Amino acid sequence: MLLIGVLSLIPLGSGGPDLIPNQDKILHFMSYALLAWLMYHCFSAGSMRYPMIVALIMSILYGLLIEVLQGIVNTGRCFDYFDIIANIIGSLAGSFMYYFTRTK
Predict the structure, then answer these.
(1) Which sequence spans correspond to the domains of the chain?
(2) pLDDT digits (tens, 9 = 90+) for 40-53
(3) How many CB atoms are closer than 10 A to CB 38?
């Protein structure tokens, strides 16, 4: 979580053109898929009652918080609804990937 937070809030360099169209959305998707997957894995190892729902809610709320902070903190980053959508879809994908690939 800390790594995603730091990378999401540090100022951007000039970077140049995207190698892949919408590559930042792909990175959002992958980051939040991994975050939700890891949360689900950690929560399901314990005695938590609904680990998938908790992992989904926490990763989605974290993505929303980071986007709001990008809009508030003057780091050259900005609030973007499409980033939120990529975060949510990534969180859903990570949770479902863990659910369907876990060993029972």
Answers:
(1) 23-101
(2) 999 988 888 899 99
(3) 15
